[in-house]
Amino acid sequence: MAEKWEYLDEHLSLRLADLEPQMFEKFFLHFLRAGISLSIGRHGQAITRRVLSAELYAAGSGRKDKGIDLRVEVEGESGEHGKEVRAFQCKRVRTWTPSQSRKAIGAVQYPAQHYFLVVACDPHQGVQDEMEKHPNWTFWSLSTICAELRLRVPPSKHTQVLFFLSPQELKKFVPFTTEALIPPEKYFERVLGADKLFRHDWKLVGRDKEVKALWDFLDGKNIVQVISAKGGEGKSRLLWEICRTLPRERPGGEILCLNPHRTDDDFSFAFSGNPPIRVIVVDDAHRTEQVPQQLLALAAQDAKDRSSKIILATRPQGMEALSQKLYETGLEDKSAHPILLAPLRKSNVKALATEALGPDLAQHAADLADLTTDSPFLTVIAAGLLRQGRLKWGRWPSDDEFRRHVFREFEHGNLESIPEPDRDVAKGMLRMLALLAPTALQPGFIEAAARCLGCTVFKFESLLCRLRQSELVAGRDDGLRIVPDLFADFLVYDTCYEPAQKKPGFVRQILREFSDRGSALLRNLSEATWVARASGISDDDLLKPLVEHEHRQFEASAYYDRVRILQHWSNFSIYLPEESLRLAKLAVGLRSSGEDSTEIRPPFGIPETVDSLDDVRQQLPALLKP
């Protein structure tokens, strides 16, 4: 029995005539903006020019004729500075005749160097014969559209251009496609637009030095650039600035982002094509388990043929683990000096607050900057809440309570799409995932999670789908986490240590149900514990059992696994100085190896030759770093 598809026919051609008008427009705009080139015939020669821009013209007036009008700029003979204009007439039709071609050509008044007539069907030969009478016109039938798309659109852009196809249809139409790396517009779309509470499209302030350093890196010989800063200090916003401006500053360059929602790690198709520069962006790289070794290796290989770059944004505690990954892929000596983001000056935060508050609330900009001076993330969210009236100026008893209120309103706003009776379960799910991240949906996990939350498995899975759609939950089934990271930090502290909100019984139940996730729990608790201790809040009930379990596991492990445990601890040891010192003393004092782990060792990571006390001791400087 033949397969039935919504937007593919039996010949695996696109059913473009079935698209709604807005979808038809969106398809052609994405197609022509996908970094492609266009070929035309001129004086008996084929001329290919790179597309610089594509826009609707005449306010979409062509819709009444079941079509759209597009103005496309391409490079001229002297490159970008000698632009030429191509005018497109795109017709959303199921049939087309020579007389319709003559009418369409005769009606065009827009001045251009060349014209395209594009129809969403395959008409008879008479149409092509008619079009050949008009040398300044190029004709595309449906078959031509499909062939040009397959030929010219990079695999990493397929999902964006063919947004209306289901995953199954996409694989049928373009088998060699990938969602592992995606365009920046797709990656950052959740934080762009006036309808978003947390936004990256406010003007970048106070980062001129860092922007210059990134351009110097892109023009230099190094392959890797690490950006390091605390959560909420603007790493992602700096990445968006480079993503936004690179197409203009480096024409023809390609920039792609690691997709946290990817379903596979096949990056090879994303490295097709021949751009003059290719930039791979990895946000939240301190979650080093989410930074694939094969991606680093492919970028290193690609750098032999072109200017190929990787930008990794991380929190400070991820620097050590990232350095290890770069060393293992031979990229450590090809890394530029890390860009360390300093806190913004108050004048910069005030400028950001002024813009984000808008003219009606701008008088509060200086005070808001005082409250959020170490976190542009908080500045933007608080300003949005004030504009929406969900936060009233001055109605908080302390600065700490102000921050907590901002995060709670951020959570509430993102859960509004969930039915009221289910919101408590959804809040518990967010806190559980924040504590266990990265969370793998292994056999038995969902049942255990449902027991902790007091809900059915069906409700858990339904709410998880909704939270993924809200984009508070990111990652694949083998590594779910809460985003933004600063929000995840709040959830952990709020659940474990906040005096008025903590839920120790809930946390202890998670510890019992997921006793095999002790190392992840310890890492996610570490910063919250450090903050709690600084505030004089006791942590023994939660932290002590985890630390003791880790020490017992370390003592029972072989040298190889002890090295792995120490490397893991090095990611958060700065927050647990006393516990880390005790672990170091234990590592030095154990003169013999425990039993070898039965766990499968990853293909990249610690060398198999690690098998001695000296190998263990070599990890101690990273563990005890100041």
Explained architecture:
This protein is an alpha/beta fold and 626 residues long. 44% of the residues lie in helices and 13% in strands. The protein contains 26 helices and 14 strands. The chain has helices spanning 21-32, 98-107, 125-131, 142-152, 158-161, 167-173, 184-187, 208-219, 235-249, 293-302, 319-328, 346-357, 365-372, 376-388, 399-414, 423-436, 445-453, 457-470, 485-496, 504-513, 518-534, 540-556, 559-570, 577-589, 613-617, 620-623, and strands at residues 37-42, 45-56, 67-76, 79-91, 114-119, 137-140, 181-182, 224-228, 254-258, 277-282, 307-314, 339-340, 473-474, 481-482. The strands form 3 sheets. It has a 6-stranded mixed beta sheet with strand order 1-2-3-4-5-6. A 6-stranded mixed beta sheet has the order 7-9-10-11-8-12, with helices on both faces. Strands 13-14 form a two-stranded antiparallel sheet. Helix 19 (485-496) packs across helix 21. It is globular, with a radius of gyration of 28 Å. The N and C termini lie far apart (67 Å). Residues 597-604 have low confidence and may be disordered.
Biggest sheet character: 6 strands, mixed
Low-pLDDT parts are 597-604
How are strands sequenced across the largest beta sheet?
A: 1-2-3-4-5-6
**Tally of contiguous helical segments:** 26
Let me know the average pLDDT.
87
Helix/strand class: alpha/beta
Say how many strands there are: 14
Estimate what percentage of residues fall within beta strands.
5-15%
Instruction: Calculate Rg over CA atoms.
Output: 28 Å
Please tell me what the overall shape is: globular
How much helix is in the residues? Answer: 40-55%
Distance between the termini: 67 Å
Characterize the quaternary organization of these chains: single chain
